[in-house]
Amino acid sequence: MGITKNDFVSQNHDTAEINTLLIHSDDVVNNRIVNDVAPPINVTTTFRYSSNPEDWIPWADQTPEEKEKLLNHDFVYSRLSHPNNVRLETNLNNIFDGYTTIYNSGLSAFNGIINYINPKQVFLPDCYHGIKSICKIWERNYGTKVYNDIDEIFNHLQEGDLVHIENPINPFGTVIDIKKYIDYAHEKKAYVVWDATFAPSPIIKNHWDFDPDFILHSLTKYYAGHSDLLAGCVVTKSSEIDTFLKNDRIYLGTNIGNLESFLLLRSLRSYELRVEKQSSNAKKIVEWLADNKDKFNGNIIKVSHAITQRKELANKNQDVSFIDNLFNEDYTTPVFSVYLKDFNSCKTFIANLKYFQHATSLGGVESLVELRCLTDPNIDRNLIRISIGCESPKDLIKDIEQALKKI
Ligand SMILES: Cc1ncc(COP(=O)(O)O)c(C=O)c1O
Prior knowledge:
Layout: H1 18-24, H2 64-74, H3 83-96, E1 99-103, H4 106-117, E2 121-123, H5 129-142, E3 145-147, H6 153-156, E4 162-166, H7 178-187, E5 191-195, E6 214-218, E7 232-236, H8 239-252, H9 258-269, H10 271-292, E8 300-304, H11 306-315, H12 321-324, E9 335-340, H13 343-351, E10 357-358, E11 368-371, E12 383-387, H14 393-405
Parallel strand pairs: 2-3, 2-4, 4-5, 5-6, 10-11
Antiparallel strand pairs: 1-7, 6-7, 8-9, 9-12, 11-12
The structure holds pyridoxal-5'-phosphate.
Pyridoxal-5'-phosphate is lined by residues 105-107, 128, 130, 166, 170, 195, 197-198, 218, 220, 230, 232.
């Protein structure tokens, strides 16, 4: 299974399929001094300047090309750039088919975007609570008006505003009609950020078909995939914006660390295999839960995921094309939520699971559950978020079944 890239920046970029790109598209920056197959870990924070005094050009006198060479090839100080962040960006430019700036977390990535846009107004749908908290800081410090209802764009959106769309939505696993919001935002000359953390490639058909201005990923989740590093990225189609973000990143102090870069590169090599497995597992488990929901003494109130959302809409003869247009046929998002009857039932269910770890986050090879109100202040207390890993789906279903029976 593979995704063929579209033609953006293709003159510089490899046109192979995603699983080949993940493993080979940073070969072009293989270090000539060592011949390691696994990229070396560069732990240094600082780099010796050239030994030739002719090369010592004051920063203020350097041309953009000289700065570019210094940052991407010669290196100065690892807060500015280092070999492994450059290597990662080289790889991800191919995967995302755009210009990628990498950060030390998903929230740092959003922080980079909001500092670039400097909006007077921000519009948010249901989304990750950390993004809402950054917007609250902007409201507190700069008087930015924050709307916590994305449909308010149809009443209040103005040029230069920021519209943040998370699709699929954390923690529900459901989707919104992203194109409708993006088209309207562009009519008004506002910027759209698509947080696609819950549906990285190749789950989504092609993110650029929907024409967002920025794509954001918490790479901590699926791209890292082993619950052992924090990272984020912003992708744009504009090299000017990319340069701007990278310059700001120097002074916001949000570049990814050396060791995390190395771990993330390692993870990219197996990314597609993992996501394919997580996605097919999730399909089986959501379908099983939806089919068997009523067999547990009324303990399951609702299963929330794009698959159940689609069924509900189709049963009411409502439009489902915005869901079908989003996903590649064989993929779905591996995160969903289950609402149980009450808080105690949630505790009993979670306490009796054998394979699902009770922890926040998602996207790792191990399946997780989370009583979401433990970290999200605004959520229904009876909602359990489930992130499906790479275990056998049969074992995961058996585990869920036995824990539900204990309620
Ligand atoms: C949808 C979404 N966006 C952004 C983030 C923030 O990412 P990070 O934890 O890497 O800062 C998260 C974290 O859970 C998330 O779920």
